[in-house]
Amino acid sequence: MSWRLKALSANLLGLISPASVLCIWETAGALGWINPVLLPRPSLILRSLVDLVGDGAVFSPLLHTIALFAVGYGLACVIGICIGVAMATNQVLYGLLEPLTECIRPIPKSALVPVLFLFLGIGRATMITVVVLAAVFPVLISTFQGVRGLDPVLLETARTFQVRRQRTIFSIILPASLPMILAGMRVALGLGLVLVILAEMLAGEDGVGFRILDLQRSFQIRDMFAWIFVLVLLGGGLMMLFDVAERRLVPWRGRT
Amino acid sequence: MSTIGTIGEISRTGARTNRAAQLIGVRLYGLLLILVLLSLWELSARLGWVVSAYWPPVTAILRAAVGELAGGDMLDALASTLRRAAIGYIVGSVVGVVLGILLGKSRVLRLALLPLIEIIRPIPTPAVIPPLILFLGVDDALKIFIVSLASFFPVFTNTISGVAAIDDTLIQTARTFRIGWLRTLVSVVLPATLPAVTAGLRTATSLTLVVAVLAEMIAGSSGMGYYLVQMQYALRPDLMYAAVLYLAIVGYCLNRAFIVLEARFVPWIGKT
Amino acid sequence: MRKTILSAGLALMGLMILPHLSASAAELEKVRVSIIPINDVAPMFAAIQNGYFRELGLEIDTTPSTGGATGIPGLVGGSFDIAYGNVVSALLASQQGLDVRVIAPGTKLTDKDTDTTPVLALSDSGIKTGKDLEGKTFAVNTRNNVIWLYARTWVKATGGDPGKVTFKEVPFPQVEDALRQKRVDAAFLVAPFSIIAMQKPGISVLAHPYTELQLGVDVGQWITTGKLLAEKPETMKKFVAGLRKGAEWYNANRSSDALISIITGYSKTDASILKSIALPAAPLKSDLDQIKRTMDLMVDSKLLSKPLDLSKIIDPLAL
């Protein structure tokens, strides 16, 4: 009984800060303190949002964005984990790839857009590459650190029992370094979503990012905020999914 | 929590003999690979495999990069970007650490403020620049705000989970011995959270330069971001890539410097 | 000995002049202007260079922005006094209830010979008209803006259905590559990029939509807000007067090296490239009729839901 009350009060408490920000914003708007076009009142934004969802206009761009995210983020995770494991377990590959990754990593990816346009065209390939380039590094590096940080005894044991390389990777290395890999994937998740939006702004023809930019350029800021709200929900939803997945995969993690 | 650093650092814990030789020895193939790729670039531009005004030979870029050392707009632009990035980084990190500790220690604050912070996180800054201009203007305040927001999140997230992970017996012990909250904070909480905070700081370091450049690209009238776009529109791709090169070098050096400092001041990191 | 006396005398004179100079500098009123570093704003830089604003008591502080994303929000937020923008953006802002006012004309295309904004396609593509572009892609810098509007109008005027053409956003510097790599089939391009694209063989001009469809079109403007106009009417009047003088100088010196060095100064474009461009004459007055025609096209393309009252947007200062 009392834990239920506690959970309820916790949820209520959580509503206070967003609600008070919205209240201040609404009042300031109603009193004419802020420009109504460039920063419209939340109640008006809500109406735009209701329209957006009501007439179904939200779905096509949203699906577009989710698809781009899924492909970009998925590729970034797979590539990051593969290269990370390869570099951590094989000294030759480490020497071969370490300088290159360290060279590419600090480059602001938005500066590479002209090159990407030149080689990949203006569209999907460029957008996916931008997302992968940004999201791959957190995964790669935390995978690498996770694998390198494994207990040597574990690997020695595997060697002693003459477990094959492939099996060592899949049944020993990957599960043991999973918490670190997931930590990198979590960082990449937030980064990836922002980058998807950015990529759609740079090279998109549809999607939430393009909508936001288009509305911004024609000063339809009210509708733009409605889309930003959609984005916040999407980001929150993805994080929640990630939390659930992580708890499933690494149940022992939250208890430390 | 995540400790996203560089790949180099853990290999460092291996044999320390002849480090310089080892550093190059292992990486020899990697350096060769980069040389091969750059030669391919050079050849493709010189022999006309790739024909574009935006594909200058590598040597032209290097020439432009060296030329700017003797005087030019690029170093000024770099300085102003670094200044914005540094201020934004410091502001974002300090706020991140303070809020992280406060929210990590106080359940009420955590419940009350965390949702708001999580709502702000996925908002892409390029989208909210027009309303931000209303409050922050178009100058440094706007760009510094964007940079500090970007560095705030990793520092905050890492700090709060670092505080949450502190062994409760430590705090209890401090309480048993009636140590004041300030001393508890300084001598128990901070040292125990430091590895997590540093990890966040390191993630923020690599983000801040990138975000500063991006903000200048969208709303800049100076700095490397503006310079990059301006050179692109002025049909000077050699200078544009030279700017990218400088940014990459600075980013690399910042990361290296961070690792060195970290090894000095948080020596117990990586031993967990 | 004489040298020392001379220099001492000069220094003394300098000391006497200096306070005077700094006093007059303090009296100058600062005007913050948002610009896009393109050829179109050359008349204003000419006015700055020649001291026309200073004579009127203004000191112009320019803030370049490449995309122009900060111009109108910066005006509304009070960061700028005046901003350079294109006609479509100004009308779009006005439609949303932002109180923007045009105080001076910026760019106007009155002469076919100086229209350097063509529609381009590969010479061997077989594309000649808007009709040929149906089912194909057309590169514009920004959708739902001025270039897009006239690209659509041209497609329609040459027998095509703009609804069947895919308009793709390609930044100006990347257009030539996109055309040559056949990633787009046609493109609407501005100088200097159009000039450079045509220097090498293989790309030909299909049309000059601005001057062929609407000779005399007002493309760019200097804008402010109603609030600023009411607060500082004198400043705005002085700015327009100085700018007009700059435009007159610009028109009289269009092919001079002096003008080219002014443009290179702020755009960093190579002088040799600028020399190959025929610069259009700068307008002295806005043309309500022309802006109305652009507005009608915007209504046609559904950028505007209904016509706006232009007399409330175009300030008498511009006329």
Biggest sheet character of chain C: 5 strands, mixed
CATH superfamily of the largest domain in chain C: Periplasmic binding protein-like II
Globally, the shape of chain C reads globular
- Main β-sheet, spatial strand arrangement of chain C: 2-1-3-10-4
Radius of gyration of chain B, Cα only, in angstroms? 23 Å
* Helix/strand structural class of chain B: mainly alpha
Write the layout of secondary structure elements.
The complex is a heterotrimer of chains A (256), B (272) and C (319).
Chain A: H1 2-30, H2 42-54, H3 59-89, H4 91-104, H5 113-120, H6 124-148, H7 152-160, H8 165-203, H9 207-217, H10 221-249
Chain B: H1 8-11, H2 19-46, H3 58-69, H4 73-105, H5 107-120, H6 129-136, H7 140-164, H8 168-176, H9 181-219, H10 223-233, H11 237-265
Chain C: H1 2-27, E1 29-35, H2 42-49, H3 52-55, E2 58-64, H4 71-77, E3 82-86, H5 87-95, E4 100-109, E5 119-122, E6 137-140, H6 146-157, E7 166-169, H7 175-180, E8 186-188, H8 193-199, E9 203-207, H9 209-213, E10 217-225, H10 226-231, H11 233-252, H12 257-267, H13 271-275, H14 288-300
Parallel strand pairs in C: 1-2, 1-3, 6-7, 6-8
Antiparallel strand pairs in C: 3-10, 4-10, 5-8, 5-9
